[in-house]
Amino acid sequence: MKRLLSLFAQPLFWGALALLLLLALMAPWAYPGSSAALMAQLLGAWDAADPTAHPLVALLFGSLGRLLPSAWAVTGFNAATAVAGALCVWLLSRLAAGYFRWMVDEPRSRPFADNAAGWAAALAGLTLLLSPDFLRAATHFQWQTIDLLLILGASLLLLRTAETGSDRRLACAAFAWGLVAPEAPLTVVLAPFALAALALGWMCAHDRIRWRTLITRWALPALLGALLTTLAAVALAYGSGAEGAFRPLVGAFVRRQVLGTLEFLQGSWVLMGFFGVLPFVLALFAGRDICANRRTPAVLGTYLTAAVLVCVALSPLPAAPRLLAGQWADAWPVAFAAMTAFAAAFVGGAGVLLLRVRQPAEG
Predict the structure, then answer these.
(1) Rounded to two decimals, what is the model's pTM?
(2) Is the pLDDT of residue 205 over 50?
């Protein structure tokens, strides 16, 4: 029994399980809608309406499409997306486990850190795998799954930076977020939280802020990453035969990013974001105090609020994101599903600490 529980606590187990499940459920055809349209564009069967759309996905899958025989292209695209989905489950599970292993440093809580991390890893992997939105997006070619993989990879670098305060890791994390930001408009919404976490992690490891280091290790790498993705989008536009000078193409690319971000501020997307982003933010706020074994009324109230919101998000209530997403055929709130899964992992892991650690820290 202990070996089975130990297996469930391993992020690699959830990644392997996700890979088997997603490949078994993988669609054998091109999913109708924007997914099939982008696939046709990348395979050269359809002129691109917006050649600057999804530059990183276009580079990755465009190269894959040139390597595969035409008869296997659809299956190859769907299988690659399933592999990306399995990596998302592994990364999220590792993020949830690492959060508790790296953040729990209070002497009374430290003996229970691995237990909390195991529960968090299992809940993160299971919650994401049971998300209908994630399963829909990870069983056929869908760029949102690739975007989520890039965001989670950048987030893992971010968490490791918060752990060590390393200037080199800070630069790598900032570069990764800059690289992803033009590809996935949702990163614009998440950017304030990412920047706050970067700043807190860096300041915790340094006595004072050196603005020169902050600029060279933070701002410049992020701008370089964003510039590289923008240049890739423009290069793809020239390669597709799009007419126009460099500046108009960059302007069109930036406008598309702004419009894509504004979509998250309309209609039911606001509710989906509320039940996805808010529990995630509350988890970040309460997590550090719970890992430090502080149990003030504000901390406990924040924890209970996050738990209630997670329960609502996972329930069959009309306000749940998966039911709201059903109003659109092309809505894929996979990032919200991942944030809800991380919040669920936090509720489980923090609950272990609250139950097992009897005496709170002094002061």
Answers:
(1) 0.84
(2) no
